[in-house]
Write a structure and sequence with these properties.
Layout: H1 5-8, H2 13-24, E1 40-44, E2 52-58, E3 61-72, E4 83-90, H3 105-121, E5 130-132, E6 136-148, H4 153-167, E7 169-176, E8 179-190, E9 198-205, E10 208-211, H5 215-220, E11 223-229, E12 235-241, H6 248-273, E13 280-281
Parallel strand pairs: 4-6
Antiparallel strand pairs: 1-2, 1-13, 2-3, 3-6, 5-6, 7-8, 9-10, 9-11, 11-12
GO molecular function, one term: exonuclease activity
Domain Exoribonuclease phosphorolytic: 37-171, 196-258
Main location: cytoplasm
Length: 282
């Protein structure tokens, strides 16, 4: 079973003290301000065999999301809604401690946080995935592969999932009463989306609060808080990582930093999803 770097890396005390001394001067080791994201690029249509896909590069972190669609039956309590399922895999090539095999608790947690951000925000129009109420719906699978682990994989995964969903098209179908015929090799409408959602992660390192922690900062952080937003600033998800604590005042500061930073992510995401044919943002 693989171990995430945040649980595995041991940062020498002298190195930690050196990094904290840099933070005390108002800088980060890579030259960013405390509120800055690393370089970001979003590329849709990266995996040609998927119904939709997106590659996100955030600094040294690289995440690929792919969307697959299949006919299914609805759940009994939601007969007029389709389904979506999020899976995350920490590939062995992404980091030296990642191993092949079933997803470990870290991958499961990551998939659940991304799923919750999409589900609780109602970003995906599940009713738009219904073909025949009570009988036939679409199930949308969102598979997220972490290719390079350079820290803050959650924010990159959420961006990749949303961009891939906006890139995805459903198979073309012909509906006649209760009969549904899939037209082979033809694409239909796009996966119905109501609006995008992003997550912003802030790490607490010593007494400093850092937006978009890289791998080194994440490994040393006492705590990390990730908040998911809609573009209007509404909070639709929140997840804390690490054993450290955040005071009420620190929580207020983190939320303010995350809310402001979310707008930059929306700007970059909308450069891609606003285009009818998708594309590249960077």
């Amino acid at each position: 079973m693989s171990l995430t770097p945040s649980n595995y890396n041991i940062i020498p005390l002298i190195k930690r003290e050196s990094i904290v001394s840099i933070l005390e001067k108002g800088n980060r080791t890579d030259g960013r301000k405390f509120t800055d994201y690393r370089s970001l690029s979003i590329t849709q249509g990266y995996a040609k065999k998927a119904e939709g896909s997106a590659m996100v590069r955030l600094g040294d972190t690289a995440v690929l999301a792919g969307v697959k669609v299949k006919e299914d039956v609805p759940f009994p309590d939601t007969p007029d809604q389709g389904n979506f399922i999020v899976n995350v895999e920490l590939l062995p090539l992404a980091y030296e401690t990642f191993e092949p095999g079933p997803p470990d608790e870290n991958a499961v947690e990551l998939s659940r946080v991304v799923d919750r951000g999409l589900r609780d925000s109602k970003a995906v129009d599940l009713k738009g995935l219904c073909l025949v109420p009570g009988k036939k719906v679409w199930t949308v699978w969102i598979d997220i592969d972490v290719l390079d682990y350079g820290g803050n994989v959650l924010d990159a995964s959420m961006l990749a999932a949303v961009a891939a969903l906006y890139d995805a098209r459903l198979p073309k179908v012909e509906v006649n009463g209760d009969e549904v015929k899939v037209v082979k090799d033809e694409k239909g409408n796009r996966v119905p989306m109501n609006y995008p959602v992003v997550s912003v992660s802030v790490a607490k390192l010593d007494r400093f609060l850092l937006v978009d922690p890289d791998l080194e900062e994440e490994s040393m952080a006492e705590a990390r808080l990730s908040i998911s937003y809609l573009e209007d600033g509404k909070i639709v998800g929140m997840q804390k990582f690490g054993n450290g604590t955040l005071s009420v005042q620190e929580l207020d500061t983190v939320e303010g930093l995350a809310r402001t930073s979310s707008q930059r992510l929306f700007e970059e995401l909308k450069k891609v999803i606003a285009s009818p044919e998708g594309g590249v943002s960077q």
